[in-house]
Amino acid sequence: MSEAALATRGLNMRFGSLAVAQGIDISVPRGARYALIGPNGAGKTTLINMITGLLRPDSGTILLEGQDITALKTDARVKRGLARTFQINTLFPHLSALEAVTLAVSERRGEAGNWWRRLPDYSETVDEAYEILASMQLADVCLQPTHSLAYGQQRLLEIALALATKPRVLLLDEPAAGVPRNESSALFEAIARLPDDITVLFIEHDMDIVFRFASRIIVLVGGATLMEGTPAEISSDPKVREVYLGSSHTGGAHHV
Amino acid sequence: MTTATESSATKPSASVDPRAFLKRQTRWSVFEVLFWLATLSPFFLFETYLSLASQIAITALFAVSLDLILGYAGIISLGHAVFFGVGAYTAGIVSKYGWGEPISGLFIAAAAAAIVGYLTSFIIVRVQHLALLMITLGLGFIAVEIANSADWLTGGADGLLGVETWPVLGIWDFDLWGKTAYGFALVVLFILFVVSRRLVHSPFGLSLRGIRENAVRMPAIGAPNPRRLQKVYVISAAIAGVAGALLTQTTEFASLEVLGFQRSADLAIILILGGTGRLYGAIIGAIIFMVARDQLADMNPQYWYFWIGLLLMAVVLFLPDGILGGLTRLVPARWRKP
To answer: Which residues of A, range 209-248, sit inside 8 Å of B by Cβ?
Structure first.
């Protein structure tokens, strides 16, 4: 295996007396599809926030394709190919979907600082944004303001915005959160169609989806990695069953 | 993104043409052309009001500068008169000490305001909400006190006397009737409006709206928010400086009032009355505010704020997009820009 697309070394972080990350070491190889699972409050979103630079770990390092990015700001990490989506829609309500994705594309192409040329004159940028929207089945609604889109479409726009940055590593924080079960697998089909060279790490609670779309699974409990393995290994592991999948016969089992 | 979907899904469907959509937003509408033609009417119809018209044009330019940061980038300021004042005093001082050429005076004033804007921008882009209001308010107070104590330069509380503005291009002298004053102010307003209009339709303008809409998402799509905000803040300061310089040049006087809190507060009122984030709202707001004040000037000057207070509350409650936003809703949808 060549060097990992994304790795963390000994990430620690506390919110007051609460340890939200305790020596987290993960390593995601290029092109892999990893799922990050764990009970509520396990620190999954916190880990993504640290990896993307929204939160600063107390100690530890984050490596993107072997390079230390721990000190970089979020936008600098994005420029190096690390993008994310948000569990709660974090969109631009009064921009049309087209404008939002065009904005992300023009940021990537280094055009967003230009204040003299008109937006439609950047025809390649606009066309690329439209292609991304079309690939997410949003072509027909892309001229509507974001706030008027259906919830499921807004979830797709979350992903479209991340894709517009041309990520090499994509972190998806519960991409199907709030989406009805029958629609969520369609959303994951769209994710599964992403090019093989994009490395994906996603948080998801629906175990059927996790087992279907993840090549490997990381289990996080109380801010620490409990174990990592293939779906088969995870589903048969007694420890995981106890803390996460909710085996009821052991006396110490706790439901968080 | 795979080749299979690319061939089928990326052909623009008949109903959606993304480039045409964006182009439509940048095109000059017939309303805009009519509006700018109407700005010429004071020369023919209201000749006795030409000096008022030039005051309105100056205030409108000042309001456009605030709209760039408030309406587009979401930076609330209660101290924008600082830049107006820096421009006003710079133009006045340059003129007092022997260089009364108005056009280069505007450039010098713009540069001075831009420098002050750049220096203060480092604090501005790092705070939000209440802290931002207090910082801009504080900067305004500091600016007044500096201008007051540097009376050897600014004339202090007596105001800056001895300003003399040379004829524009050596041809048009600033007359008592305000014909040149309005013509000059209107041309400058129009040029800087076109520049601002271009700015808001650029990728940079879109990124400002992005910051206003969601400052958290912007870094996550690779945008350096502080740098963008600093840039628009400096541009806005420069334009406010030009407005201030115009006031000094056309009235040949500058006093502490040019950078006071009252001016900053009035400006915020003007912009909110007219409607933020649409440039024309700034101009409409300036016209309504200045004309109303002029018409009610016979009354107790305090009393006039009674009506402004009432109007402000009514607009905020019933026309959240400002008066211009309310007017837009009267226009049939097919004439409206998307």
So the answer is: none
Q: Given an 8 Å threshold on Cβ–Cβ distance, is A112 in contact with B338? A: no
Residue A34 identity (one-letter amino acid):
Y
The rounded distance, in Å, linking the Cα atoms of B220 and A206 is 26
CATH number for the domain that contains residue A231: 3.40.50.300
Is residue A140 domain-shared with residue A172, that is, in the same domain?
A: no
Domain count, chain A: 2
**Could you tell me the CA-to-CA distances from A207 to A213, A219, A220, A234 in Å, in that order?**
10, 12, 14, 11
- Residues of A in Cβ contact (< 8 Å) with B223: 75, 103, 107, 112
The answer to whether the Cβ–Cβ distance between B198 and A93 falls below 8 Å is no
Determine contact, residues B14/B20, Cβ cutoff 8 Å: no
User: A134, A165, A196 — which closes off a domain?
Assistant: A165
Nearest to B320 by CA among B269, B276, B257, B267: B276
B202 touching chain A per CB within 8 A: yes
Q: What is the mean pLDDT of residues B5-17?
A: 52
CA distances, A169 to each of A7, A156, A209, B192 (Å): 11, 18, 20, 43
CA closest to B9 among chain A residues: A134
Report the distance separating Cα A133 and Cα A120, nearest Å: 17
DSSP for B17-47 reads -HHHHHHHHHSPPHHHHHHHHHTTHHHHT-G
CA–CA separation, B266 vs B258, rounded Å? 12
How many other C-beta atoms are found inside a 10 Å radius of the C-beta of residue B109? 31
pLDDT for B173 equals 87
**pLDDT band at residue B11 under the 50/70/90 scheme:** very low
Using CA atoms, how far apart are residues B264 and B275, in angstroms rounded to an integer? 16
pLDDT at B9: 43
What are the C-alpha distances in Å from B243 to residues A152, B63, B85, B90, B288?
A: 48, 9, 9, 12, 18
* CA pair distance B322, B330, nearest whole angstrom: 13
Do residue A197 and residue A253 come from a single domain?
yes
Best of A79, A111, A114, A118 to disrupt the B interface by mutation (most B CBs within 10 Å)?
A: A118
Alpha carbon distance B332, B104 (integer Å): 44
Instruction: Indicate the pLDDT class of residue B22, thresholds 50, 70 and 90.
Output: very high
Q: In this structure, are A149 and A206 located in the same domain?
A: no
Show the domain range for A11: 1-81+167-256
The residue among B22, B201, B235 with the most chain A CBs within 10 A of its CB, best to mutate, is: B22
Q: A9 with A68, same domain?
A: yes
ipTM given for this complex = 0.90
